[in-house]
Amino acid sequence: MKSDSMFCVYSLVVLLLLLLQSSCVESFILKLERNETFPSPTNVFELGFVQPNVFISRWYLGIWLAQDPKRTCLWVANRDNALTTPMGTLTFSNNDLVLIGQGNKTVWSANLTGGGDVNSQMSFDNPTDTLLPNMRLGYDPKTGSRKVLKPWKNQTDPSSGYLSLRFEDDFYSAVVAISLGHPLSAKNWSIVWNGYSFGDMPPILEIENETLLVMTNYLGNHSRLTLEANQEESIGVYTWDLKSRVSKASWSLSKDDCHGYLRDVAGNYRTCGSYSFCSTTNKAPMCSCIQGFHQKTEPSGGCVRSRAFNCNDSKYLLLKNMKLPERHFDQYQLDGFETCKQFCHSDCACTAFALVEKLNNSYCVYWTGELDDMQKYSGFGGQQLYVRVAAKDLG
Question: Which has more pLDDT, 137 or 360?
Fold first, then answer.
Protein backbone atom coordinates (compact mmCIF):
# COMPACT_ATOMS: atom_id res chain seq x y z
CA MET A 1 0.00 0.00 0.00
CA LYS A 2 2.98 2.29 0.31
CA SER A 3 4.27 1.77 -3.22
CA ASP A 4 4.63 4.75 -5.53
CA SER A 5 2.00 3.35 -7.89
CA MET A 6 -0.56 3.01 -5.12
CA PHE A 7 0.13 6.52 -3.85
CA CYS A 8 -0.53 7.70 -7.42
CA VAL A 9 -3.93 6.03 -7.18
CA TYR A 10 -4.66 7.74 -3.84
CA SER A 11 -3.58 11.05 -5.32
CA LEU A 12 -5.93 10.56 -8.24
CA VAL A 13 -8.93 9.69 -6.07
CA VAL A 14 -8.61 12.42 -3.48
CA LEU A 15 -7.43 15.21 -5.71
CA LEU A 16 -10.12 14.53 -8.28
CA LEU A 17 -12.65 15.14 -5.58
CA LEU A 18 -10.90 18.39 -4.70
CA LEU A 19 -10.91 19.70 -8.27
CA LEU A 20 -7.21 19.18 -8.78
CA GLN A 21 -5.30 17.28 -11.41
CA SER A 22 -3.35 14.06 -11.60
CA SER A 23 -1.49 12.23 -14.32
CA CYS A 24 -0.83 8.86 -12.70
CA VAL A 25 -3.07 6.28 -14.34
CA GLU A 26 -5.85 5.98 -16.89
CA SER A 27 -7.88 3.41 -14.92
CA PHE A 28 -7.92 1.70 -11.53
CA ILE A 29 -9.97 -0.45 -9.17
CA LEU A 30 -9.83 0.36 -5.47
CA LYS A 31 -11.39 -1.86 -2.79
CA LEU A 32 -12.83 0.04 0.17
CA GLU A 33 -13.60 -1.38 3.59
CA ARG A 34 -14.59 -0.21 7.05
CA ASN A 35 -11.90 1.59 9.08
CA GLU A 36 -9.64 1.78 6.02
CA THR A 37 -8.68 5.27 4.94
CA PHE A 38 -6.61 6.55 2.06
CA PRO A 39 -4.42 9.62 2.64
CA SER A 40 -3.41 12.14 0.04
CA PRO A 41 0.34 12.22 -0.78
CA THR A 42 0.92 15.15 1.58
CA ASN A 43 -1.28 13.60 4.27
CA VAL A 44 -3.56 16.64 4.29
CA PHE A 45 -6.78 14.81 3.40
CA GLU A 46 -8.19 11.36 3.92
CA LEU A 47 -10.82 9.39 2.03
CA GLY A 48 -12.93 6.64 3.55
CA PHE A 49 -16.30 5.48 4.77
CA VAL A 50 -18.25 7.44 7.36
CA GLN A 51 -21.34 6.53 9.37
CA PRO A 52 -22.92 9.83 10.51
CA ASN A 53 -25.66 8.08 12.51
CA VAL A 54 -24.18 5.28 14.59
CA PHE A 55 -27.63 3.78 15.17
CA ILE A 56 -28.40 3.27 11.47
CA SER A 57 -26.27 1.21 9.08
CA ARG A 58 -25.90 3.85 6.38
CA TRP A 59 -22.42 4.37 5.02
CA TYR A 60 -21.02 7.09 2.82
CA LEU A 61 -17.74 7.72 1.03
CA GLY A 62 -16.34 11.03 2.16
CA ILE A 63 -13.23 13.13 2.54
CA TRP A 64 -12.02 15.10 5.56
CA LEU A 65 -8.89 16.77 6.87
CA ALA A 66 -6.51 14.07 8.04
CA GLN A 67 -5.76 15.93 11.29
CA ASP A 68 -9.42 16.42 12.14
CA PRO A 69 -10.29 14.01 14.98
CA LYS A 70 -14.01 14.58 14.30
CA ARG A 71 -13.63 13.67 10.61
CA THR A 72 -15.85 16.56 9.56
CA CYS A 73 -16.87 15.66 6.03
CA LEU A 74 -15.89 18.20 3.40
CA TRP A 75 -17.44 16.21 0.59
CA VAL A 76 -19.66 13.13 0.35
CA ALA A 77 -19.91 11.00 -2.80
CA ASN A 78 -23.06 8.94 -2.39
CA ARG A 79 -24.94 11.40 -0.18
CA ASP A 80 -28.34 10.49 -1.69
CA ASN A 81 -27.73 6.76 -2.03
CA ALA A 82 -26.25 5.25 1.13
CA LEU A 83 -24.47 1.91 1.33
CA THR A 84 -25.94 -0.53 3.84
CA THR A 85 -22.52 -1.96 4.67
CA PRO A 86 -19.07 -0.35 4.85
CA MET A 87 -17.77 -2.18 1.81
CA GLY A 88 -17.46 -1.02 -1.78
CA THR A 89 -15.35 -0.67 -4.88
CA LEU A 90 -14.22 2.57 -6.47
CA THR A 91 -13.35 2.28 -10.16
CA PHE A 92 -12.05 4.71 -12.74
CA SER A 93 -12.27 3.99 -16.46
CA ASN A 94 -13.13 5.95 -19.60
CA ASN A 95 -13.33 9.16 -17.57
CA ASP A 96 -15.99 7.67 -15.28
CA LEU A 97 -15.46 7.47 -11.52
CA VAL A 98 -17.89 4.90 -10.08
CA LEU A 99 -18.65 3.66 -6.56
CA ILE A 100 -20.07 0.13 -6.53
CA GLY A 101 -21.80 -1.45 -3.54
CA GLN A 102 -23.29 -4.82 -2.72
CA GLY A 103 -24.71 -6.85 -5.60
CA ASN A 104 -22.49 -4.95 -8.04
CA LYS A 105 -24.91 -2.01 -7.73
CA THR A 106 -23.72 1.48 -8.72
CA VAL A 107 -24.46 3.86 -5.85
CA TRP A 108 -22.65 6.91 -7.21
CA SER A 109 -20.80 7.99 -10.34
CA ALA A 110 -19.22 11.09 -11.84
CA ASN A 111 -17.92 11.82 -15.29
CA LEU A 112 -14.56 13.56 -15.33
CA THR A 113 -14.64 15.98 -18.21
CA GLY A 114 -11.90 17.38 -20.34
CA GLY A 115 -10.65 14.64 -22.60
CA GLY A 116 -9.95 10.98 -23.11
CA ASP A 117 -7.35 10.31 -20.46
CA VAL A 118 -6.37 11.24 -16.95
CA ASN A 119 -3.72 13.63 -18.19
CA SER A 120 -6.48 15.95 -19.41
CA GLN A 121 -7.76 18.67 -17.14
CA MET A 122 -10.36 17.11 -14.85
CA SER A 123 -12.91 18.72 -12.59
CA PHE A 124 -15.29 17.31 -10.06
CA ASP A 125 -18.56 19.04 -10.88
CA ASN A 126 -20.65 18.21 -7.84
CA PRO A 127 -19.70 19.95 -4.59
CA THR A 128 -22.01 18.92 -1.77
CA ASP A 129 -22.42 21.34 1.15
CA THR A 130 -18.89 22.77 1.25
CA LEU A 131 -16.51 24.84 -0.86
CA LEU A 132 -12.74 24.55 -0.39
CA PRO A 133 -10.10 26.79 -1.97
CA ASN A 134 -10.13 26.42 -5.80
CA MET A 135 -13.66 24.97 -5.81
CA ARG A 136 -16.26 26.78 -7.87
CA LEU A 137 -19.87 27.86 -7.66
CA GLY A 138 -22.05 28.67 -10.65
CA TYR A 139 -22.46 27.51 -14.23
CA ASP A 140 -19.50 25.97 -16.07
CA PRO A 141 -20.06 26.32 -19.84
CA LYS A 142 -17.21 23.87 -20.53
CA THR A 143 -19.00 21.00 -18.82
CA GLY A 144 -22.57 22.26 -18.96
CA SER A 145 -22.88 21.69 -15.21
CA ARG A 146 -24.24 24.04 -12.58
CA LYS A 147 -22.46 23.92 -9.25
CA VAL A 148 -24.63 24.65 -6.22
CA LEU A 149 -24.33 23.85 -2.54
CA LYS A 150 -26.99 21.90 -0.67
CA PRO A 151 -26.83 21.27 3.08
CA TRP A 152 -27.19 17.98 4.86
CA LYS A 153 -30.81 17.26 5.82
CA ASN A 154 -29.69 17.21 9.42
CA GLN A 155 -26.55 16.66 11.47
CA THR A 156 -26.61 12.88 10.91
CA ASP A 157 -28.10 12.68 7.40
CA PRO A 158 -25.88 13.90 4.53
CA SER A 159 -28.60 13.54 1.89
CA SER A 160 -29.41 16.72 -0.02
CA GLY A 161 -31.52 19.26 1.84
CA TYR A 162 -34.08 21.41 0.05
CA LEU A 163 -32.12 24.62 0.58
CA SER A 164 -29.49 25.70 -1.96
CA LEU A 165 -26.76 28.30 -2.28
CA ARG A 166 -26.14 29.42 -5.84
CA PHE A 167 -24.48 32.13 -7.87
CA GLU A 168 -26.98 34.44 -9.56
CA ASP A 169 -25.08 34.56 -12.83
CA ASP A 170 -27.16 37.05 -14.81
CA PHE A 171 -24.81 37.98 -17.65
CA TYR A 172 -26.59 41.29 -18.22
CA SER A 173 -26.56 42.42 -14.60
CA ALA A 174 -23.79 44.41 -12.97
CA VAL A 175 -25.32 43.67 -9.56
CA VAL A 176 -24.17 40.11 -8.85
CA ALA A 177 -25.21 38.10 -5.82
CA ILE A 178 -25.22 34.70 -4.22
CA SER A 179 -28.70 33.52 -3.33
CA LEU A 180 -29.81 31.32 -0.44
CA GLY A 181 -33.26 29.77 -0.34
CA HIS A 182 -35.68 27.09 -1.44
CA PRO A 183 -36.26 26.63 -5.19
CA LEU A 184 -40.01 27.31 -4.83
CA SER A 185 -39.71 30.26 -2.43
CA ALA A 186 -41.10 33.53 -3.69
CA LYS A 187 -38.26 35.40 -1.97
CA ASN A 188 -34.70 34.17 -1.34
CA TRP A 189 -31.96 35.75 0.75
CA SER A 190 -29.39 37.43 -1.47
CA ILE A 191 -25.89 38.63 -0.62
CA VAL A 192 -24.66 41.25 -3.07
CA TRP A 193 -21.13 41.64 -4.46
CA ASN A 194 -19.48 44.97 -3.62
CA GLY A 195 -16.41 44.67 -5.81
CA TYR A 196 -14.41 43.07 -2.99
CA SER A 197 -16.63 40.57 -1.21
CA PHE A 198 -20.23 39.44 -0.84
CA GLY A 199 -21.99 41.53 1.80
CA ASP A 200 -19.94 41.51 4.98
CA MET A 201 -18.52 38.05 4.31
CA PRO A 202 -14.71 37.78 4.35
CA PRO A 203 -13.31 38.11 0.80
CA ILE A 204 -13.00 34.37 0.21
CA LEU A 205 -14.91 34.32 -3.09
CA GLU A 206 -13.81 35.87 -6.36
CA ILE A 207 -15.67 36.30 -9.64
CA GLU A 208 -13.75 34.12 -12.07
CA ASN A 209 -15.90 34.95 -15.08
CA GLU A 210 -19.47 35.91 -15.93
CA THR A 211 -20.91 32.62 -14.64
CA LEU A 212 -18.45 31.22 -12.08
CA LEU A 213 -17.19 32.08 -8.62
CA VAL A 214 -14.03 30.53 -7.21
CA MET A 215 -13.10 30.19 -3.55
CA THR A 216 -9.69 31.58 -2.64
CA ASN A 217 -7.24 30.68 0.13
CA TYR A 218 -7.60 34.16 1.68
CA LEU A 219 -8.23 32.55 5.09
CA GLY A 220 -5.80 29.68 4.54
CA ASN A 221 -5.45 26.59 2.41
CA HIS A 222 -7.76 24.59 4.69
CA SER A 223 -10.49 27.19 5.09
CA ARG A 224 -13.99 26.30 3.98
CA LEU A 225 -17.43 27.70 3.29
CA THR A 226 -20.25 25.40 4.40
CA LEU A 227 -24.01 25.55 3.97
CA GLU A 228 -25.08 24.55 7.46
CA ALA A 229 -27.46 21.71 8.32
CA ASN A 230 -29.57 23.58 10.87
CA GLN A 231 -32.88 25.37 11.21
CA GLU A 232 -31.28 28.79 10.80
CA GLU A 233 -30.53 28.26 7.10
CA SER A 234 -27.04 29.63 7.58
CA ILE A 235 -23.74 29.84 5.74
CA GLY A 236 -20.55 29.42 7.75
CA VAL A 237 -16.96 30.35 6.92
CA TYR A 238 -14.32 28.40 8.86
CA THR A 239 -10.58 28.47 9.31
CA TRP A 240 -8.46 25.53 10.43
CA ASP A 241 -6.51 25.90 13.66
CA LEU A 242 -3.50 23.64 13.23
CA LYS A 243 -2.49 23.79 16.88
CA SER A 244 -5.83 22.82 18.42
CA ARG A 245 -6.92 20.76 15.37
CA VAL A 246 -10.39 22.29 15.17
CA SER A 247 -12.30 24.38 12.67
CA LYS A 248 -13.07 27.84 13.99
CA ALA A 249 -15.94 29.97 12.75
CA SER A 250 -14.71 33.13 11.04
CA TRP A 251 -18.10 34.37 9.81
CA SER A 252 -21.67 33.11 9.93
CA LEU A 253 -24.89 34.30 8.33
CA SER A 254 -26.70 33.21 11.50
CA LYS A 255 -24.94 36.12 13.26
CA ASP A 256 -26.65 38.55 10.86
CA ASP A 257 -29.65 39.65 12.94
CA CYS A 258 -31.46 40.95 9.86
CA HIS A 259 -31.33 37.47 8.32
CA GLY A 260 -33.29 36.04 11.24
CA TYR A 261 -35.54 39.08 11.63
CA LEU A 262 -36.74 38.97 8.01
CA ARG A 263 -37.29 35.19 7.89
CA ASP A 264 -40.59 33.66 8.97
CA VAL A 265 -41.16 30.26 10.58
CA ALA A 266 -41.84 28.71 7.18
CA GLY A 267 -38.41 29.76 5.92
CA ASN A 268 -39.70 32.51 3.62
CA TYR A 269 -38.03 35.89 3.44
CA ARG A 270 -39.70 39.28 3.45
CA THR A 271 -38.35 42.79 3.06
CA CYS A 272 -38.76 45.96 5.07
CA GLY A 273 -40.77 47.43 2.21
CA SER A 274 -40.13 50.29 -0.17
CA TYR A 275 -37.64 53.01 0.82
CA SER A 276 -36.87 51.13 4.04
CA PHE A 277 -33.88 49.07 5.12
CA CYS A 278 -33.06 46.61 7.86
CA SER A 279 -30.38 47.67 10.30
CA THR A 280 -29.14 46.57 13.71
CA THR A 281 -29.35 49.04 16.57
CA ASN A 282 -28.12 47.85 19.97
CA LYS A 283 -28.25 44.32 18.53
CA ALA A 284 -32.00 44.61 17.90
CA PRO A 285 -32.81 44.43 14.17
CA MET A 286 -35.40 46.84 12.88
CA CYS A 287 -36.69 48.42 9.68
CA SER A 288 -35.86 52.09 9.23
CA CYS A 289 -37.08 54.65 6.70
CA ILE A 290 -34.54 56.47 4.56
CA GLN A 291 -34.07 60.12 5.57
CA GLY A 292 -36.79 62.16 3.89
CA PHE A 293 -39.32 59.32 4.08
CA HIS A 294 -41.83 58.23 6.74
CA GLN A 295 -43.63 55.02 7.59
CA LYS A 296 -46.67 54.03 5.54
CA THR A 297 -49.97 53.62 7.34
CA GLU A 298 -50.82 50.49 5.34
CA PRO A 299 -50.07 47.13 6.97
CA SER A 300 -47.90 46.15 3.99
CA GLY A 301 -45.12 48.26 5.45
CA GLY A 302 -42.53 50.39 3.78
CA CYS A 303 -42.10 54.13 3.61
CA VAL A 304 -43.21 57.07 1.45
CA ARG A 305 -41.71 60.48 0.77
CA SER A 306 -42.34 63.04 3.49
CA ARG A 307 -42.76 65.93 1.05
CA ALA A 308 -43.66 66.48 -2.58
CA PHE A 309 -40.76 65.60 -4.85
CA ASN A 310 -39.53 67.73 -7.73
CA CYS A 311 -36.77 66.00 -9.67
CA ASN A 312 -35.39 69.37 -10.77
CA ASP A 313 -34.88 70.34 -7.13
CA SER A 314 -33.28 67.17 -5.79
CA LYS A 315 -30.07 66.06 -4.14
CA TYR A 316 -28.49 62.71 -3.32
CA LEU A 317 -28.35 61.15 0.12
CA LEU A 318 -25.34 58.88 0.69
CA LEU A 319 -26.07 55.60 2.45
CA LYS A 320 -22.94 53.62 3.33
CA ASN A 321 -22.44 49.88 3.82
CA MET A 322 -25.67 49.05 2.03
CA LYS A 323 -27.00 45.93 0.43
CA LEU A 324 -28.19 47.33 -2.89
CA PRO A 325 -31.91 47.31 -3.75
CA GLU A 326 -33.41 44.71 -6.03
CA ARG A 327 -34.63 45.27 -9.58
CA HIS A 328 -32.25 47.94 -10.84
CA PHE A 329 -33.28 49.49 -14.13
CA ASP A 330 -30.06 49.39 -16.10
CA GLN A 331 -26.31 49.82 -15.94
CA TYR A 332 -23.68 51.50 -18.07
CA GLN A 333 -19.91 51.30 -18.13
CA LEU A 334 -19.22 54.89 -17.13
CA ASP A 335 -16.20 56.50 -15.52
CA GLY A 336 -16.46 58.18 -12.15
CA PHE A 337 -18.98 59.35 -9.62
CA GLU A 338 -19.89 62.65 -11.27
CA THR A 339 -20.64 61.01 -14.63
CA CYS A 340 -22.89 58.47 -12.95
CA LYS A 341 -24.60 61.18 -10.90
CA GLN A 342 -25.29 63.31 -13.97
CA PHE A 343 -26.62 60.29 -15.81
CA CYS A 344 -29.15 59.67 -13.02
CA HIS A 345 -29.98 63.36 -12.74
CA SER A 346 -30.86 63.56 -16.42
CA ASP A 347 -33.64 60.99 -15.92
CA CYS A 348 -36.49 62.26 -13.75
CA ALA A 349 -37.52 58.65 -13.03
CA CYS A 350 -34.14 57.79 -11.50
CA THR A 351 -34.49 57.28 -7.73
CA ALA A 352 -30.98 56.09 -6.84
CA PHE A 353 -27.62 55.14 -8.29
CA ALA A 354 -24.44 53.30 -7.30
CA LEU A 355 -21.03 52.53 -8.74
CA VAL A 356 -20.26 48.81 -8.73
CA GLU A 357 -17.21 46.79 -9.72
CA LYS A 358 -17.44 43.61 -11.78
CA LEU A 359 -14.54 41.82 -13.47
CA ASN A 360 -12.32 44.91 -13.13
CA ASN A 361 -14.89 47.14 -14.81
CA SER A 362 -16.81 49.98 -13.16
CA TYR A 363 -20.53 50.20 -13.83
CA CYS A 364 -23.02 52.96 -13.11
CA VAL A 365 -26.18 51.24 -11.89
CA TYR A 366 -29.37 53.20 -11.44
CA TRP A 367 -32.87 52.47 -10.20
CA THR A 368 -36.28 53.77 -11.23
CA GLY A 369 -39.40 53.44 -9.12
CA GLU A 370 -39.46 52.36 -5.49
CA LEU A 371 -36.36 50.98 -3.75
CA ASP A 372 -36.85 47.67 -1.98
CA ASP A 373 -34.95 44.86 -0.21
CA MET A 374 -32.17 46.89 1.36
CA GLN A 375 -29.99 46.29 4.39
CA LYS A 376 -27.38 48.35 6.21
CA TYR A 377 -24.40 46.31 7.38
CA SER A 378 -22.79 47.19 10.67
CA GLY A 379 -19.24 48.16 9.81
CA PHE A 380 -17.58 46.10 7.10
CA GLY A 381 -19.33 45.25 3.84
CA GLY A 382 -21.92 46.63 1.47
CA GLN A 383 -21.71 49.50 -0.99
CA GLN A 384 -22.39 53.18 -1.22
CA LEU A 385 -25.91 53.94 -2.44
CA TYR A 386 -26.97 57.42 -3.48
CA VAL A 387 -30.72 57.96 -3.00
CA ARG A 388 -32.46 60.86 -4.72
CA VAL A 389 -34.36 63.01 -2.21
CA ALA A 390 -35.91 66.47 -2.13
CA ALA A 391 -33.23 69.13 -1.65
CA LYS A 392 -34.95 70.37 1.53
CA ASP A 393 -34.62 66.93 3.10
CA LEU A 394 -30.85 67.38 3.21
CA GLY A 395 -31.03 70.89 4.66
Answer: 137
